[in-house]
Amino acid sequence: xxxxxxxxxxxxxxxxxxxxxxxxxxxxxxxxxxxxxxxxxxxxxxxxxxxxxxxxxxxxxxxxxxxxxxxxxxxxxxxxxxxxxxxxxxxxxxxxxxxxxxxxxxxxxxxxxxxxxxxxxxxxxxxxxxxxxxxxxxxxxxxxxxxxxxxxxxxxxxxxxxxxxxxxxxxxxxxxxxxxxxxxxxxxxxxxxxxxxxxxxxxxxxxxxxxxxxxxxxxxxxxxxxxxxxxxxxxxxxxxxxxxxxxxxxxxxxxxxxxxxxxxxxxxxxxxxxxxxxxxxxxxxxxxxxxxxxxxxxxxxxxxxxxxxxxxxxxxxxxxxxxxxxxxxxxxxxxxxxxxxxxxxxxxxxxxxxxxxxxxxxxxxxxxxxxxxxxxxxxxxxxxxxxxxxxxxxxxxxxxxxxxxxxxxxxxxxxxxxxxxxxxxxxxxxxxxxxxxxxxxxxxxxxxxxxxxxxxxxxxxxxxxxxxxxxxxxxxxxxxxxxxxxxxxxxxxxxxxxxxxxxxxxxxxxxxxxxxxxxxxxxxxxxxxxxxxxxxxxxxxxxxxxxxxxxxxxxxxxxxxxxxxxxxxxxxxxxxxxxxxxxxxxxxxxxxxxxxxxxxxxxxxxxxxxxxxxxxxxxxxxxxxxxxxxxxxxxxxxxxxxxxxxxxxxxxxxxxxxxxxxxxxxxxxxxxxxxxxxxxxxxxxxxxxxxxxxxxxxxxxxxxxxxxxxxxxxxxxxxxxxxxxxxxxxxxxxxxxxxxxxxxxxxxxxxxxxxxxxxxxxxxxxxxxxxxxxxxxxxxxxxxxxxxxxxxxxxxxxxxxxxxxxxxxxxxxxxxxxxxxxxxxxxxxxxxxxxxxxxxxxxxxxxxxxxxxxxxxxxxxxxxxxxxxxxxxxxxxxxxxxxxxxxxxxxxxxxxxxxxxxxxxxxxxxxxxxxxxxxxxxxxxxxxxxxxxxxxxxxxxxxxxxxx
Length: 948
Hints:
Oligomer: single chain
Largest sheet: 8 strands, mixed
Strand order of the largest sheet: 4-3-5-2-6-7-1-8
Number of strands: 24
Structural class: alpha/beta
Low-confidence stretches: 1-17, 269-276, 615-626
Mean pLDDT: 82
């Protein structure tokens, strides 16, 4: 709908008006006048483009006093609705908080609003920055608002609107609970504006918002303002993914399907090496290979440039691969900028990086980075220095960088639209395994393609990979939505804050209003129907297994008992073998040569570190594990791997002993090669010991003998249809078991959040953090500590673990509460600061062990997202060195991590140190030293952060 200030003669509007009766013309004029008097009318005049129908609908609902949930594709302009909430707040003399999930987005939105409303009216609050926090409009990360709500901050006075940008983050299993906490605890007088990517259950989420926040309008838009075209680039040819045609459901391009089918039948490189080929086969293969291959990264950029499809973002799910892609393009001689653009790039880069000391530039890879930027090519990932990332973003928006190789973190709302998006692969590492990307992830990534107001159309290009299924790709591209699933779980900090504000009973009721419980309660309805259907099926199965000779249900029970007893004895035998194997592993020492009996690394191996369980040293101080011995070995094939109990189904003995050189470095390929060669020379001739199979326990078991006798004596044993009856009995038993599981699920899903809360409260009561509805002094300290290891931090303060530590030592110890290594445990024990700091870290791990045992006693499970994970000591040495004033070059070399990661972890340590300074008892040395540690860490690259 477009509001017209006047009706000009001869226009379509005037013609339509002339066709109306006098009464209708009068009504239309009154309607136009009413619309002109609204806040929306003055808001629309601030933009030089018309608003879309969904934006108008959402803004009108906001002006009518309703909350809104807007679910729309990436790049569709849903933030306009959030900006209208800002406009309304300023017009009404109220405050508006604009929340985002990540600091980069907060910085970007702060800059946008400052340009529109001026710096005096807009503030910024993130973990790093506090700018004009008393302004009527404040941009902040969602965690900052959550902390304000629990602290009862005076800044909340006069708050009229809260915008929650990227509210679908509520599904994030690590941070999603924060969004629900804010939505539940915001005062009723605050109008909530929720902006989300297109989700398939927006109505369900809207129903929940309606329940907890009052009248909420749900506006869903599937329309992309810039049409998106999908392609597959294979060799020299760019295939359209879908066939041109009318209709909602598009067909996959038959040319692409035909090519994929031909590729699937063509022998792989390995197959070709195995046998001889006829000349005709080789010629045919050469012709096919000339058409179909996975193009190199420089080839892709050159092709996109030739087709006029730059600027482009290529998503690669690896930081190292992003950096390698830039280097490959530079080596290939790609130049996407002319001389004038190169000068503009250099001028902007030098201006933005002027504050970085000259000696740090080389360490940060500045000159290689600048060379890529001058050519219009850059990487973008979390391992980069924040300043470098911001420069890449600015240059890309200005059109001075035309090819960016990025990890998926770029897709999380940062305003970097492109003409084209390229996906190298449809598989990514999810933290646990390599998994296919979901339709939701595909939509998020490809949603960057097509710049509104610049491009007529956007393009998503997937690179051809052998084995690719066009139908699967079409399914990803055709499924535009994904469901929003709550990840809400109560935490210790949440529990004490809620009890302090509302008491236990009211807190329990509040948690029952969470979206997690709302979804669980809705799912119970479908499970109950399934139980009813199962009960009807059980009656039919019971009739089918009836035997004329006797009680077949009793006979089936005897058969099950016999089978269960046999399985139990088999498990006991396996457990005994595992126990014997574990005992043998505990006897291993560094330098033992063993034969790994099974698994991926079966064969000869040299023990580097026995990896004994915590508390058992065996005379060797190595990496300790809580789940049995995990020896770190060097295989004869030069691989250094930490093995698990599953690799040793039978006991293992040392075949030989070898000396491990003190100079051996497991990260050095040359070191591994030399030691593996010595291993093969020393023990390569020794045959592996063979273990004899034992006599089965079932042969001598009295209970099994009794059950077999009872079976043979049962009347139903002689039935001619015995096995037919037995099949029905097995189906009956299986369905009965499934029904019991469904009934337990119903019971488990009812009041699940409240039950978890009750267990947390019980543990906190046991530890004297709570006494009924009273929060003790210890509890009030815990209420000021936010983070994954909140209770562990509180206990460290309580037991004085950090008293007497210097600022640098304290920084190293606190890092264990925030750091989580990106890699697994295939590494040696981390280097630690010596003296008091090392003792304090050891005490921290001991306290965690006590808490872990207590959580197990109170049935608080980390697998459910509740509880305290083990502290990670991997960043302690780096934090200690940096706080001790060591140079960036030395610290990064010792830490073996990218500058961006180092900066991010330092800032998280600074954040927790600030919390600890606020929570520590007055008069404690920790207060002063925590503040000093913050000042020591906040220097050099860590201090470089833009205000926006």
